[in-house]
Amino acid sequence: MKKRKIYISGPMTGLDREEYMKRFLLAEDRLHHIGYKHICNPINVWACRWPKIYKLIEWLFGTKGAYNLVLLYDLWLLMGCTDICMLRGYDQSKGSCIERYIATKQGINILKNAGV
Question: Which CATH number fits domain 5-112: 3.40.190.10, 2.30.30.20, 3.40.50.10400, 3.40.50.720?
Fold first, then answer.
C-alpha cells in the first residue's frame, strides 16, 4: 500500500507573507491531526523560506520567470503526492488552479479547505 502524502495548495502571490504562512502552517497542523503523516507544505520550500533567494531568482529571470520556476518546482513536488488540500481562496490563485488541474488529470485525491 502506497504511503499517503498530501500537498497543500493555496493563494500566496500578492498576499501578506505572514498571513499566508500562518494559513499554511495551520493547514499542516490540521492535516496532521486528521492522520496525515507526510505533508508537503510549499512554505517549507526555498522560495518561501528564504525570500532573498527568491528576489535573486527574480532579478536573474524577471518576475514571470521566477514565478514559473517556483510553480514548476511545486508541480514536481505535487507529483510525488497522493492527495492535495485546496485552501480557501485557491480558485483566485492562478498557481493553485494549475495545481488542482494537474492533480485532477493525475488522479490525485482532492480535499478542500481543511478548515483554513
Answer: 3.40.50.10400
Dihedrals phi, psi of 2, to nearest 5 degrees: -70, 140
pLDDT tens sequence across 71-102: 999 999 999 999 999 999 999 999 999 999 99
- pLDDT tens for 40-80 read 999 888 777 778 888 898 999 999 999 999 999 999 999 99
Written as nine digits, the cell of 109 is 485525491
How far apart, in whole angstroms, are the C-alpha atoms of residue 10 and residue 20?
8
What is the value of pTM for the model shown?
0.89
SS3 content of the chain, % helix, strand, coil (to 5): 60, 15, 30
Element (H, E) at 6: strand 5-9
Q: What is the C-alpha to C-alpha distance for residues 98 and 91, in angstroms, rounded to an integer?
A: 10
Domain ranges of the chain: 5-112
